[in-house]
């Protein structure tokens, strides 16, 4: 009976570990994408700022380029930069939370294995 309870507890811990690992990878990928967006917006903004004020600037809309004032394009790039930084901060908070959850689940697994050393043998026999 205790073996079945331990096995069930292990399977629950394993499932939550797999779920947390997937979520953590997803958040890391989203952060990587937002970092790229932020960098692209920053570099574009730096190039726009280097141009003289009377330069014709164009905005890409699909396959079409539309003449836009330089100030409008700068404003859009600044907004993209701010949005990316806000998203990165939010994702960093999520990442830290998921890392704490993962550490907690790992501790639960360690406690389970320390309480019942026999379950480690059962786990090893299941995986072979």
Brief account:
The protein is mostly helical and 128 residues long. It contains 3 helices and 2 strands, in the order αββαα. Residues 81-115 form a coiled coil.
Describe the structure.
This protein is mainly α and 128 residues long. It has one domain (1-127): Helix Hairpins (Orthogonal Bundle), CATH 1.10.287.370. The chain contains 3 helices and 2 strands, in the order αββαα. The chain has helices at 2-50, 70-115, 117-127; strands at residues 57-61, 64-68. Helix 1 (2-50) packs antiparallel against helix 2 (70-115) and helix 2 packs across helix 3. The two termini are 23 Å apart.
Which spans have pLDDT < 50 for at least 5 consecutive residues?
A: none
Number of domains: 1
State the helical fraction. over 70%
Determine Rg (CA atoms, Å).
25 Å
Helix segment tally: 3
Main beta-sheet annotation:
2 strands, antiparallel
CATH class: Mainly Alpha
Derived structural class? mainly alpha
* Series of H and E elements: HEEHH
Mean pLDDT: 90
How much of the residues is beta strand, in percent? 5-15%
Q: What is the tally of beta strands?
A: 2
